[in-house]
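Hello,

Our lab assistant flagged a job as stuck in the queue for most of the afternoon. It eventually completed. Since we weren't sure the result was trustworthy after the delay, we are filing this so someone can double-check. Below is the sequence as submitted and the structure that was eventually returned. Let us know if re-running is recommended.
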Amino acid sequence: MESSENKSAGGKLFKMEVTHKNPIQYYLKLDELISMNDWIGKDIQLNWNGEIRCISCDKKTKTSFGQGFCYTCFTKEAAAAPCILRPELCRAHLGEGRDVEWEERNHNQPHVVYLAATDIVKVGVTRSTQIPTRWIDQGASSVIVLAETPNRYLAGIIEVALKDYFTDKTNWRNMLKNQIDEAIDLVEEKWKLEELLPSDLAQYLSENDEILYFDYPVQQFPKVVKSVSFDKEKTIQGKLLGIKGQYLLLDNDRVLNLRKHTGYIIEVNNPTEQASSTLF
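-- returned structure --
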């Protein structure tokens, strides 16, 4: 069920779901889906009740590991394996991994290596079925597919080969301030690499030169990024000025990384309506 009204809702927090429209449509996943675009320009209050539950086993945990796991699941679950962050370590193509069936479904599948532009060019890897969600989650302004591979391992090897030329990290502060280098030509950057890659990797370069552009629902970007967290304040309140990546952009240059708080039990409500209801 999707809620389109600014009413209270609560539950275990997951990363926001997205729809690639103009602008991007965001949905907060709690006990129900909440259309977050409807909250932009309005007051919002997010309350954490102090509880964190593992997104895999639902066990209470004092600390969230790897964006939502308890420590046991973080060390055992395939979705938290080292190759999630380092694709070149993937063993799925060899029939190996923490969960062979999971690896076969998710990692021994077509992947892409891509170039994403913000203030700089970033190289990254994602499963083909995660396009364009992965790019939106990172807050990219524009993206081009660089290479297409049959599995995660090969995509990771290409990414490693390009780390001397491009970063694989997103400068999240510049991304949130919407610092974009308009001079970046992703097609030109892409084909510069043809001669830099070894022939066994260059064969995977994609002929698809389409550039995807992303329009985020933002009324005002922060000038100086001030990160806020439920670990420091259980109630975070203010006017929602926009959403980019998996961040809520609040007034007074504050930003809240929702993905960092995956597994937290929270409630979202309109503080104005809540205050009014207490008078009667």
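-- support follow-up --
The delay was a queue issue, not a problem with the job. The result is valid. The longest helix spans residues 152-162. The helical segments are 71-76, 100-106, 133-137, 152-162, 172-176, 186-192, 199-202, 271-277.
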